[in-house]
Specification:
about 550 residues, mainly alpha, 3-stranded mixed sheet, globular, binds ligand LLGJG24Q, hydrolase, glycosidase, alpha,alpha-trehalase activity, signal
Length: about 550
């Protein structure tokens, strides 16, 4: 097999493997109702693993399946484990003040201002510090130690998440919490230094994949507010390492266009071919339709790679949108991933220049030029006014390069088809923005409460009718920065819808949600493999960033 086809597997820890066994037993014992598989791989041990395993193996079992009784399992868990989340301590952010000076100056409406201050105060609920015990005895925890304080998304997500952190930082900047924002970046740099790339999240079971790469974008935003050159100096080596990771043999795919020019693009490619430990029971069930081990392994690889995309799960990654087992993430070149890497290249060029490193600046501007050409040649569809994901022929690519074919563009409408607008190189072209905007307005994605993720109601969480904060933010910011009057007003219109749905949802439920149903203002989203979550890092961040940008006039109604 060529390197491109081989799946390198990053081994997990003995603790994760054991906790997957506990997870499986818990499903048998407690049943599917209210079962969250992740809970079991987040438990930490009170005693060492061999003693715990011995006690687990000694539990009385009955029936053909060897089921453990509810009483025995509950007792075992209470005796041998600390609760999930016990290894993260609540932490008062050093730079939090109830009403920061200069906070959301354009928000004039008192009701909205009072609510924005409540959202700002949520940073206190989401701030944590990893307990010393994790550093002292890492073998008892699946939580990974991090040097600085963290901000978690919320609810079941009690660890750092990579791409969520970008929008958390955007909100922290609106909240003037620059030290907390820098601490997040320091943690991510630590992950690059330790593992070679930023992990999906700070857990032992996330060491086999990354997430949408936005580290340089975080540094860029913080630098633009604080002019902290030392942060840039500290981050540059990690940013260069991360760029190499996303352009490594396993991620890079070459497409030859009709003129015979070669274009390099990147794909998601997790280093894992087994069930995801945090959803092991679910993945095994989904894979049960496959007969051979190699088919199962390929499917698990595509599942983990979809998790790496941040869009877990979506019809975007399925060859047949009504059949989950046709997931083929690794044989798709995604528009958004390549936009993030293009942004990484532009941001590295900018930040290298800040450090006076002209050679790095020039080589990254060259890389950005090449990727922009690749995005235009492979993804762009002028007739449709959108950039489409590109499906590689014959499943996972093993060849060194493949010839471009129009029919390989996935012409289904996804919010990701419009993400290139986020980048200056695209939104500074007025004719292009007009074309894309027309296509966006007639796409069917814009609804009463924001932009839908797709047009397909598959029951997966990254599909219709869910709307996600990061997607709203990138499209709105792109339209806004184009400087075109009509694009500005569309951007504001979407931002207002999004703020309203967050506000009304908060008033109804007392919480900010992870995702929303764009068909009904104030209604949380649903679908997917876990129950809807609240908290919620990136939603808070986008609300604050939108309010900072657009403000809220005294006389504008905030109700639906
Ligand atoms: O437990 C299932 C999956 O959960 C995560 O994905 C979702 O939450 C993340 C945190 O907010 C978010 O970054 C991601 O876009 C969501 O789909 C996790 O990232 C997955 O790896 C995990 O399998």
């Amino acid at each position: 097999l060529s390197k491109k086809c081989r799946v390198t597997v990053v081994p997990t820890t003995p603790l994760v493997t054991f906790l997957e066994r506990v997870q499986e037993t818990a499903l048998d014992t407690f049943g599917e109702k209210n079962f969250d598989a992740k809970l079991y791989v987040d438990l930490s041990l009170k005693l060492n693993l061999s003693k715990t395993e011995k006690a687990f193996d000694g539990l009385p079992r009955s029936g053909e399946n060897g089921t453990v009784s509810v009483k025995d399992l509950k007792e075992f868990i209470a005796t041998y484990f600390d609760d999930a989340g016990d290894d993260l301590l609540y932490y008062d952010p050093v730079d939090f003040v109830p009403e920061p000076e200069g906070f959301l100056l354009k928000v004039k409406n008192p009701e909205v201002r009072a609510w924005a201050l409540e959202v700002h105060a949520l940073w206190k609920n989401l701030s944590r510090k990893v307990a010393d015990g994790v550093r002292e005895q890492p073998e008892l925890h699946t939580l990974l130690p991090l040097p600085e304080a963290v901000v978690v998304p919320g609810s079941r997500f009690i660890e750092v998440y990579y791409w969520d952190s970008y929008w958390v930082i955007r909100g922290l900047l609106a909240s003037k919490m620059y030290e907390t924002a820098k601490a997040i970046v320091t943690n991510l740099i630590f992950l690059v230094d330790t593992y070679g790339y930023v992990l999906n999240g700070s857990r032992a079971y996330y060491t086999n994949r990354s997430q949408p790469p936005l580290l340089s974008a975080m540094v860029y935003e913080i630098y633009n507010r604080t002019f902290d050159v030392e942060l840039v100096r500290k981050a540059l080596p990690a940013m260069l390492k991360e760029h190499a990771f996303w352009n490594s043999e396993i991620h890079k795919v070459t497409i030859q266009d009709a003129q015979g020019c070669n274009h390099n693009l990147s794909r998601y490619y997790a280093m894992w071919n087994k069930p995801r430990p945090e959803s092991s029971t679910k993945d095994k069930e989904s894979a049960s339709k496959f007969l051979s081990d190699s088919e199962k392994q390929q499917f698990y690889h595509d599942i983990a790679s979809a998790a790496e995309s941040g869009w877990d799960f979506s019809t975007r990654w399925m060859r047949n949108t009504s059949e989950f087992t046709t997931l083929s993430t690794t044989s798709i070149l995604p528009v958004d991933l390549n936009v993030y890497i293009l942004k990484m290249e532009l941001d590295i060029a900018f930040l290298a220049n800040v450090l006076g490193n002209k050679a790095t600046m020039e080589s990254f501007l060259e890389a950005a030029k090449a990727r922009k050409n690749a995005i235009n040649s492979v993804f762009w569809n002028g007739k449709k006014g959108q950039w489409f994901d590109y499906r590689l022929t014959n499943g996972t690519i093993c060849k060194e390069s493949e010839t471009w074919q129009a029919c390989n563009q996935n012409q289904n409408v996804y919010a990701s088809n419009f993400i290139p607008l986020w980048i200056d190189l695209f939104h500074s072209d007025a004719a292009l923005v007009k074309n894309v905007m027309g296509s966006f307005q007639s796409s069917g994605l814009i609804h009463v409460a924001g932009i839908a993720t797709s047009l397909i109601n598959s029951g997966q969480q990254w599909d219709f009718p869910n709307g996600w904060a990061p997607l709203q933010h990138m499209i709105v910011e792109g339209l806004l920065r184009s400087g075109l009057k009509e694009a500005r007003s569309l951007a504001e219109d979407i931002a207002v819808r999004w703020i309203k749905t967050n506000y009304v949802g908060y008033k109804k439920t007392g919480a900010i949600h992870e995702k929303y149903d764009v068909q009904k203002c104030g209604e949380p989203g649903g679908g997917g493999e876990y129950i809807p979550q609240t908290g919620f890092g990136w939603s808070n961040g986008v609300t604050l960033a939108f309010l900072e940008e657009f403000g809220w006039p005294e006389d504008r109604n905030i109700g639906c």
